[in-house]
Amino acid sequence: MHITPSLTPAAMERWERMDVKGRELILARIWCVHCKKNHGIRDAEGHLHPSGDIILLGFCPSCGGKVARVIETGDTMGPAKYYP
Ligand SMILES: [Zn+2]
User: Fold this and answer.
1) In a domain, 63, yes or no
2) Is the model's pLDDT at 2 over the cut of 80?
3) Is 1 contained in some domain?
4) Ligand 1: distance of its center to the CA of 71 in Å?
């Protein structure tokens, strides 16, 4: 299954610089606090934090609860020049 999250232009610019395998792993390993399992994400949306990290928000495909994930692109790509 191939999912592309709905991202702001600033977040998408960084997302596209990540390798495809890494992106798939991130999307498949999103922790659900309700299920206490990695269930991935559906209806994913994201924006860029001023730190340069991508903030991904969505829902657990299993229980429908809210899930979130910080992708630490700020560490490798530096702070954001523009956001969100
Ligand atoms: Zn869940």
Assistant:
1) yes
2) no
3) no
4) 20
Instruction: Report the amino acid identity of residue 77.
Output: M
Q: 63 CA to middle of ligand 1, Å?
A: 4
Alpha-carbon distance 67 to 57, whole Å?
A: 6
* pLDDT greater than 70 at residue 51: yes
When divided into structural domains, the chain yields a total of 1
Structure tokens at 62: 């299993």
User: 74 CA distance to ligand 1 centroid (A)?
Assistant: 27
pLDDT of residue 3: 73
- 82 located within any domain: no
Mean pLDDT of the residues in the chain = 95
CA 65 / ligand 1 centre spacing (Å): 5
Confidence of residue 76 (pLDDT cuts 50, 70, 90): very high
Rounded to two decimals, what is the model's pTM?
Answer: 0.92
Q: Which helix (H) or strand (E) holds 45?
A: strand 42-48
Domain holding 35, by residue range, is 6-77
